[in-house]
Amino acid sequence: MLKVKTFTFNPFQENTYLLYDETKEVIIIDPGCYEKREREALHAFISAEGLKPVRLLNTHCHIDHVLGNYFVNQSYKLPLEIFAKEEPVLAAVASYASNYGFPAYTPCKAEKYLEEGVPVTFGNSSLEVIWVPGHAPGHIVFYDKDSKTCIGGDTLFQGSIGRTDLPGGDHQTLLTAIKEKLFALPDDTTVYPGHGPSTQIGIEKIHNPFVGKNASH
Hints:
By secondary structure, the protein is α/β, with parallel strands linked by helices. It has 6 helices and 14 strands. A 6-stranded mixed sheet has the order 1-2-3-4-5-6, covered by helices on one side. A 6-stranded mixed sheet has the order 7-8-9-10-13-14.
């Protein structure tokens, strides 16, 4: 059965996720670890649990989700995997990292590309890749149907949605993608977002002020 470990890193309070199963193979999604102590915390958990890192993935490539890419890439010799449409978003980070207070940011280029409909496999687990644009042009989420777990990045939050005022963002695109892609998942699916606490699809279908049934349009 899939296990999810959450770390909250950097001043953006970004959620970094480790997913692993009984084989001890673990994938690292959106490593936001920038400070030395954050990187040590990630490494210490992996060591303590006897996990074997096998994949490094980004849901999207805004700065708060990629600060630890290089660290993970170098520490565990894992190629970075992203959705191809995020390539320019990732490339842009180096140009503004210092302005956001991250002068020591080290870029990490993507070496592999994820595709919608092509599962992410590790251990005994298989995750569905779902393209959910709007917050970022190549934003994807990862869904495990067995445990009804969705790693949602910055698409759907508890009572909110991802911001759409950044380059490549589009409000209506995100609303449509959430309703057509995420709301097609079972109501009891747990969504682990890029920031804040987890939620469930069924709850957001009803109560989310942006995309729920009572949302003002």
